[in-house]
Amino acid sequence: MKTHRYNTVVQWNADGEGTKNYRSYSRDHSIAVDGKTAILASSDPAFRGDPSRYNPEELLVASLSACHMLWYLHLCAVNGVIVLDYYDAAVGTMEENADGSGQFSRVELHPVVTVSSERDTYAAQPLHQRAHEFCFIARSVNFPVVVAATVKSTVDDVRRAR
Q: Can you tell me whether residue 36 is helix, strand or coil?
């Protein structure tokens, strides 16, 4: 088995009095990886975060979506399916418990894929299941990740335009 390591740095700095008061400290922080632009992050606005910054929950849903997409594009490439466009409006559901803890209960991926030919639509659809089976992130979470994919061809776009 091959092992991969991923090193990240999460950094937070106190403004004023630090965490002296729950309501007053900043949730703003940065996420960095050597040689890459930092991601400005915060907590979800529901938890006193900055809505203009990414939050961990959004990043988890985005990670699942991106991992699925990258596996899907790989599988299409090695199976001769030409993908021209890929769009996913993913949705994650998190449940908050009475004690303030919480957990994700479900993430739904809704990829809409455009392929180059009508023939490719038949080959492209089952590759979503294979991508889901290979996705490192989906295999690592303890909640359902549902894939509700749509595959269309450029021929479909031409028909609708008429």
A: coil
